[in-house]
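call fold target=DNA 5'-3' helicase
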Amino acid sequence: MEMEEGEGSTEEKYDVEIATTASSLGGSGVFHIINDILGFVLYMHQQIPSVLQDMSLDFDGLQTEFTDLEAHLTQPDVKPVVRRKLLSSKREVKHEIKKMQKLMTTISTLQSALQLLIREAPDIQRVVLILGGSPLRPQKAYELLFTRGDNGLSFEGDFSKSKATEALSKKTIRALISTGAGSTSCPGPMRLFVLVQAPPSLNLPQDFLPKRDFRYNRKFVPLKLRFKCKTQDNETNSPFNSGTNDLIWFQCRHIVPCPLKLIEVSLSLVNNTQASILAGNRSTLLRRRKKMIFKIEDVTVYFPYDNIYPEQYEYMVELKRALDAKGHCLLEMPTGTGKTIALLSLITSYRLSRPDSPIKLVYCTRTVHEMEKTLGELKILHDYQLTHLGAQAKILALGLSSRKNLCVNSKVLAAENRDSVDAACRKRTASWVRALAAENPNVQLCDYFESYEKAADNALLPPGVYTLEDLRAFGKNRGWCPYFLARHMVQFANVIVYSYQYLLDPKVAGIISKELQKESVIVFDEAHNIDNVCIEALSVSVRRVTLEGANRNLNKIRQEIDRFKATDAGRLRAEYNRLIEGLALRGDLSGTDQWLANPALPNDILKEAVPGNIRRAEHFVHVLRRLLQYLGGRLDTENVEKESPVSFVSSLNSQAGIEQKTLKFCYDRLHSLMMTLEITDTDEFLPIQTICDFATLVGTYARGFSIIIEPYDERMPHIPDPILQLSCHDASLAIKPVFDRFQSVVITSGTLSPIDLYPRLLSFNPVVSRSFKMSMTRDCICPMVLTRGSDQLPVSTKFDMRSDPGVVRNYGKLLVEMVSVVPDGVVCFFVSYSYMDGIIATWNETGILKEITQQKLVFFETQDVVETTLALDNYRRACDCGRGAVFFSVARGKVAEGIDFDRHYGRLVVMFGVPFQYTLSKILLARLEYLRDTFQIKEGDFLTFDALRQAAQCVGRVIRSKADYGMMIFADKRLPLQTCRYSRHDKRSKLPGWILSHLRDAHLNLSTDMAIHIAREFLRKMAQPYDKTGTMGRKTLLTQEDLEKMAETGVQDMVY
């Protein structure tokens, strides 16, 4: 038969006809029928080892087989001939695991693509499943025809499988088997292609591409199935009466590879003794696959994995101590040891053990990527708890982010940045905009927000764990705004995952986190830089461009005031009366009208009456103009100036006549005025918001801040660029409300050493403070300290040495030698962007960069996020294809903080120099002075602590699990001290313990030649097989039985 685009006949015959009494199958029904027939085709033609529903079990079986073989290879009494056969079987099983993993991923992607297709084109009529080498050379083909009912295909909203659909699928499979479908196997492994007929307007280029010239070979006849819905007449069921000629063929880009068969280790390969051992241990392995349930004192902990690391167990014990004491804790956990799942397991289990007083978990992360990873782990844990406890374990957990990350309105998302998206949202959701739209239909509103508002109290999330993508999908499905839905559900959620700023930045926390109860447990993950986050939340910078923008804002505000005086003077009078009562009595605002909260004022101050000189709108504008004029005069300086907030406010009062109390209320007074004037373009008013933020902070705090005015950047003294900075020096000011308000705050990271410094920086007393080591059966971390090149000349990034040709040459030769020895990926970190640019330019001129590129491809981090993301993607592709690559990055940059270079993406990381802060910075010098006077922290101690935590964070990118391995090179020596910075004990002691425990004395003070020799030996050692579970008294993977013994003897008795 030949089938071309648009051809067909109503007389067409079908091998199988399935009738249903339903008026239409619906989108969900069509999807599940296609999915079930797809599984039938693959399984019956012996292309996959089992039906789709059981493939995960087969995958688990292969993994169990692999673990079984590994366990027996470590036994000392295995004969050489048996060992060789077991090794061969292990390689085969490992190969099959990779193939099955690829197959499962492809099928999952194909299923997602079909769901997207049905959402975009719910009236698809033909689907063809082709098994063969290509669509033009099919071995088997199944053609599915879905005829329209009275209402056509209607998408039901979700893809849950109804009982009627399940019955229809079973009926279809039975009919196919009765016709002999699948009774013959294909000659060898095939590939499965999916083609659909859909309207030409279908736009899913990531999943479907048009295939306009598709046709079968003339001699080939497919097996045809038709699904007939309940109809009024024959014409209704004709597939070619309703615009079929307008449809074209699309081929799915996700092609299913099928060269798979189950590999079983034949017991005949081994002698009877080994066979009995293998057979006997299967029951043990099956028991271990039941995951873990164990007790820590009175808490039953549900842990969703087969084994647990000793340090994970200890982490849970210490965390429970802190929760029992209702106090705060500091916990340093080595990178790659499952800190997140240990924390989630303990706290959710702790909550289940105390149903009378359930606690709420607030989990704070630095990035959206980390937020999604945390919610992914929580999903696995929640599913495991549901299987054991049922409805008792149900929770509501969600991630909360900005409008830009949650909005589903395409017109709003078209805005350039986050602030513009916020403003575009307010233009469609503000209460006065919606009131105006009731009178003027031309005013644009957000359909999603309107649907959410109409649902009112019924707009709720059912129990479950929701990532940002899940929230967007749920909102789009229901037609509700995901952002405001998530904001509303925060008060009901058991677990909330969001950014640090939602708790530490007073302007945001005053809106998002104000309703959290005291019993909440707050977790700051990856909190090694938490002091810097706190300081940034309370620091403000003002430049000339800020003042110019603020003046434009005031002009526009003045115009709006004049307009309201002429049209609605009553609103301004009403606002004046409210301000006499106090800012706290402004009345409850709707969620759409809420603005950023005050950055500093406590509630008791907000109850005071607003000073009389800023109650009237025009008077407040006049005060702000005088403030701008004063700030502009302060920027006209040729010298660096530094003064305290008290001195600054006194000078401001004497020259501009603005009192301290007036400054305190500036931020909220501006908020009130913008609400009264119904201003929605908040992104345009950022400059005046910055000025009022500055005024409120400088009027509130007398200590912990400095005002620093610099006429230019010291690194570019010839370019005038005056800046006035209100710099916060005391991190405890931002986090103190969190410690005071909540009963337990957990600060955790992989790099908190020295751990005793954080309580001093943050001014709190932890009830538990603990640093854990990493349990290992092999030394998979190899840190080295390199102090000189092959020519014995020292290397350092000290300012007066970093441009020395000998240092630059030796750094380059080190990298040239290393890329010739180390396989796959190499990551290099420099102390700054300018230093990286300069040294790479020199390497290019001297030919060193060419030598590097002969071995591996080279990629760079830039200050542009899009460029860096593209470079990282290509870097990974180069490592995947075996070419290998080098990635140049910067300490304190985005890559150093949030990107993992696990497995072959990072076998070596080189830290060129010590990433000290710019020590001539006036802001840094002021902070050092404050730390010395207030907390008795010496300048040198803090600088070293800060530099080495950044260095540790950089090198820690290379190890992300215990099965991983990698080398770390710290390359620096400081001549005046006649010793290596990294080699000195006072410096090394500030590195995390899990790095120090592997830093041998023989690996200190190395030359390039010595480092190359150590690298070769380390890589040779890592290529040898090893026991992952631990032997000879070094248990690194604990089973259920191990934990039961530990409960009797105590955790301190475990040797690792």
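return ok
The chain has a mean pLDDT of 81. The two ends are 69 Å apart (CA to CA).
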